[in-house]
TrEMBL record:
Location in the cell: Membrane
Principal cellular location given in the protein's record: membrane
Natural source organism: Steinernema carpocapsae (Entomopathogenic nematode)
Protein's UniProt name: Major facilitator superfamily (MFS) profile domain-containing protein
Cited SUPFAM superfamilies: MFS general substrate transporter
GO CC term, one of those recorded: membrane
Membrane topology reported for the UniProt record: Multi-pass membrane protein
Keywords, sorted A to Z: Membrane, Transmembrane, Transmembrane helix
Pfam families, per database record: MFS_1 (PF07690)
Membrane-spanning segments: 12-31, 38-57, 97-116, 128-148, 194-217, 229-251, 263-284, 290-309, 321-348, 360-380
Gene Ontology molecular function: transmembrane transporter activity
Record domain Major facilitator superfamily (MFS) profile: where: 1-382
InterPro entries, sorted: MFS, MFS_dom, MFS_trans_sf
Keyword hit for Membrane: yes
Amino acid sequence: MFTIKPCSNVFFAVLFLGVLVGIFPLTAFLQSYGPHQTVIIIGTCSTIFTGTMPFWASLGFPYLVTLRFLQGVGIANVFPIIGSIMTRWAALSESGLFISLLTGYIQLSIIISAPISGFCGLNYGWPSIYYVHSVLASVITLIWTLFFRNNPFKHPFVGEKEIRKISTGKAPITSVKAALKVPYKQIFTSVPMIVVWIAVMGNFLVTQFSITFYNMYLVWVLKLDVETAGFLATLPLVAQLVLKFVTGLLSDRITFLSERNKCRFFNSLAFYGAAFFFVVVAFVHPEDKILCAILTMIPQAMIGFNPGGFNKSSVLVARQFSPAVLTVTQAVLCSTLFAGSFIVPSLTPNNTFAEYRNVFLLYAVVLVVTNTIFIIFCRAEAAEWTKEMKEVQSEGDKVGVAA
């Protein structure tokens, strides 16, 4: 029999390894068939994998790790899907709001999942957690199947006024059956894209603390009981979700700053703000457990300003090629999460506050460096390689965004 503590780094890391393996095959499928069919497939797979998790766990840790890897493959192209939806459905004037809502899936899923898991685990045993989540996954997949369309032009609930708003200022998009020829060379050599990916590394190294290690920190370091830790661990995620929504609205409505300066401002709030509070936390002795736990929430919450920063910059620069750019973003973030699954455990072998002080200072340094690079080189206007493709989109000119 195995326990989660000594195996936790492998258990978490293998999920991100699965994501890395699945990114490009699933993105190729997305480019050919669009987000509607792609999400149906990965939602169905997620339902099956989650529902059978207790069975595979009963066979032993190697089987559990294998299924965990397959789960990672199944969620490998979330960011490319977000990019595809943004390209097809988001008006340029509402790009900040769309980004904040779509990238809030991490926080929202944990906020919903944590209390459900706690209730089911305490009252019906841990296998019930997976059975309930499997049912939820099937319901969500069914809702997506019935109500989402690849093309707003063909959605029964979208009128001509909304279509005009969605299309304003955007290059016509080809159908999923006549996919754009992606200028990979220009994308990979684009400085604004490179600095976005650098910011992604800083962002998700810290985000992993929220989604993976914060609960462990509360229980193993601050010695809080599991119930209290579970409740406190959701609070920074709630704060992140609220800040994401507010940031999305403000980013779209602020007019006294240029789009580029808005990206700089919000990214600096997220990164420099979080770095400052990580330094504060590193030098506050954890005698008052609750105070220390609350102080540790603040830098995590500050990351919620990121939709107005690197996230928005990438979409504004890449435009119709956002899915391709966000495929690379997905690879970078998963590589960061995979590495972070080993970095934090290696720095905290004894789970002491002194060891976690080094983690917090590392986070602060990474955030300062990555944000400084971003604010110097970031852009917020369409790249030249997005404009060069307009003349080859005659099919898109005729049909708009096809299904």
